[in-house]
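Form 12-C: Joint structure prediction
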Amino acid sequence: MRGAALILALAMLVASPTLAQDSLPPAPYAYQQLDDPEQEAQATALMHTLRCLKCQSQSIADSDAPMAGDMRHQVRTRIAAGESPEQIRAWMVERYGDYVSYEPKLGANTWPLFALPLLMLALVAFVLRGRLGRAKGEGETGSKPQ
Amino acid sequence: MKRLRIFLWVLVGVAALAFGLFAYQLRQPKDEFVASAMVGKPIPPFQLRPAVEGQPGLSSADLADGKPRLVNIFASWCLPCRAEAPHLETLREQGAEIVGIAIRDRPEDVAAFLAVYGNPFTRIGADDISEVQLSLGSSGVPETFVVDGKGVIVHQHIGDIRAEHVPNILAKLREAGA
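Section 2 - Result
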């Protein structure tokens, strides 16, 4: 028994973890900030609004997935090379569609996002006007409400 | 009073409609795939060093020499890539030329992977920081692109290729002029 337990313990020591991640180090600028604080601030702001493709409810700034690191590297090196954040976002959208951006642009597919709040506001204004107008009208004629 | 009552019923109707929509959407299978928006566009220029010794690397120029090809994005650390290997072999036997892009991989790991699961590739480029993968609009491994002889992406297959996908991929390759 004791021998078996020892063998098991030894086997657990030498067992390699399941092969599910790559063995390469992260891309140079996956975790390293840019030297220029202003550029780094721009890059960080952009990274918070780009979606991680492997872990779709996180931004690439929040994710430790290797691919998110590679995307951060792209963002930082492109910012350092003088591209504007919106140029980089456009580059990503050109490859992955609107999906990759957390900041939707007004377009053929996205207009309801922008139209619905306006519609709601209009509805509220309409209902309020009806109510307030009626209350005022009733006050003037002196009739009791309901 | 009557107008108010109608208005309230309309509200109930709208709420019922909204909940119906939620219930419907919740029952739909979640589509986790992010399709590339690069289908129909030319492959962006790139040049990758060889991923293994003894086999050439891959550049965008290799994909625009007049012959349609499959570009398989894989990695030695990717489990579905192992399941896919026999079907890539079938595609090769049926006349498809396949080039590989190995994502975040070491040469010795790629060599070991090919030794075990077979090597259907004529060229393999090493993409150490997923740069080419990102430029193709690919969001994972494995993925396979059908590229025509001019270097234009005509089709994207997301996930591992299974036996039932082989005919469709061959058809796309023929449409591209193979």
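Section 3 - Comments
Chain A touches chain B at residues 19-24, 27-28, 53-54, 56, 66-67, 70-71, 73-74, 93-97, 99-100 (CB under 8 Å). Residues 107-135 of chain A form one domain.
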